[in-house]
Specification:
Blueprint (H helix, E strand, L loop, with lengths): L7 H5 L4 E3 L21 E4 L11 E4 L5 E6 L3 E6 L6 E6 L1 H6 L1 H11 L8 E4 L9 E3 H11 L1 H6 E5 L2 E4 L1 H9 L8 E2 L16 H4 L6 E6 L3
Parallel strand pairs: 2-3, 7-11
Antiparallel strand pairs: 1-12, 3-6, 4-12, 5-6, 5-7, 8-10, 9-10
Length: 218
């Protein structure tokens, strides 16, 4: 079984973490919310709370890992130095349009994470090469992102465009974080790379899910 992917920004913060591939698993005891493609954030302060329905999990309970799952959507992991406060975010187009990234950043700040010290890594997701959407989706995203959507979209046919979800996630993060504090895995596409990644766009209902986790307290 392949090891999960790691990102240097999170390693430099001392955060144990992993972006899942086909068949990889999170550490035993990892907690994750019931994802509903929204903007709700669940917060763990002592590890005993129930996460419930949410698309982001913030944790400041040492020794606890939180996670989200994806199969084309954008996973984002964030941490402060020493992983004192961490977060896992699931950002599909609905979550991005609803402001899930901004909500997670606000929740991190409420738990004492100073934005100047946060780092964020954007995990593998469906690429613009394989993600065409229609006008209703474009309108919902434009209401949130404005010109950032124009830069992340390429028209394909009337009423349709291919969009870069990762670029939108980055744009949301950069409203609060410095460019050098946000990283990703350039050139990866979950739909294109069937050997490593699950993809709902490629496999439909047969697609599995990949788990992406970050451990609070290093």
């Amino acid at each position: 079984m392949s090891a999960a992917l790691e990102h240097e920004l999170l390693r430099s913060a001392g955060a144990r973490h992993g972006f899942g591939l086909r068949g990889t698993q999170a550490p035993a005891g990892t907690l994750r919310p019931k994802q509903v493609h929204g903007s709700a954030v669940a917060t763990l302060r002592d590890g005993s709370e129930r996460l419930g329905e949410a698309d982001a999990a913030v944790c400041r309970a040492p020794g606890v890992a939180v996670a989200v799952v994806t199969a084309d959507c954008v996973p984002i992991l964030l941490a402060t130095p020493g992983a004192r406060v961490v977060a896992a975010v699931h950002a599909g187009w609905r979550g991005l349009a609803a402001g899930v990234v901004e909500a997670a950043l606000a929740a991190l700040a409420a738990e004492g994470a100073r934005r100047g010290e946060l780092v964020a890594a954007i995990g593998p997701h469906v690429g613009a090469c394989c993600y065409e959407v229609d006008d209703p989706v474009l309108a919902a995203l434009h209401a949130r992102f404005g010109g950032a959507l124009d830069a992340a979209a390429n028209a394909t046919r009337p009423g349709h465009a291919r969009i870069d979800l990762g670029a939108l996630a980055r744009a949301a993060l950069l409203q609060a974080l410095a460019p050098g504090s946000v990283g990703g895995f350039d050139g990866t596409c979950t739909r294109c790379d069937a050997a490593r990644f699950e993809s709902h766009r490629r496999d439909g209902a047969r697609a599995g899910r990949m788990v992406h986790w970050v451990h609070c307290g290093g």
